[in-house]
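thread: overnight batch results

M.L. [08:02]
morning all. the overnight job finished for the chain we discussed friday. pasting input first so we're all looking at the same thing
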Amino acid sequence: MELVGASVLTHEALGAGYHRLVLAAPEVALQCRPGQFVHVRVSEDRYPLLRRPFSVARRGDGTITLLYRVVGKGTALLAGLRPGGCLDLLGPLGSGFELLPGRRAVLVAGGAGIAPLLFLAQLAWETGHPVRAVVGAAQAAELVGTADLGELGVPAAYATDDGSLGHHGPVTDLLEGSLAGEALYACGPPAMLRKVQTLAREQAVPGQLSLEASMACGVGACRGCACRAHGGYRMVCTDGPVFDLEEVVLDG
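M.L. [08:03]
and the structure it wrote out:
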């Protein structure tokens, strides 16, 4: 973990409030693993005071890519950043995914949950690990990362709540067949993650999930991102954000 300055190389609006931000951050790129995140100071002013966590979506030669959606004042400020600007990062932070040998990786993404799974898809591609993806969103305009999956040659199926692209319904419908010989890797809304947990238990397949949480410190000091787990509580920022599928208790 390091505090580093990262310069903005490109910053692209993707539509539906999503942005792709490519940063020159050699120290982070060298160390980060899929599922880890950086804690970003989004403004040079005192407001907003707290940093914002963003998963690393891709890694290049000395670069990292962040994929995010504008949802509040902090991300709105970040969206105004232009190439040549600089960001203050803390990272990489948290735990990452681990590809399980002998099993095809099934990436299950809901909405902005695609971000850490794109990095995992990149690792699978680089190591020759078998992989496929199922990706869901409310509507076609909110499906992001499709070009990345195509570039990496990852077979992908899509689902939208309104039926505007792919399967009409929740993305977990695309997992209803046999999952024998596979492992699930998921990030998305809590309801989606609960369904992934259920399917994994029913078919006795292993997997991991990445939780999203508001974080004040990002290093476990404030204990503001605690989540329920079997045997107690875990900190999303330090024990996670990636957990074994059976480790955490998802309320609902």
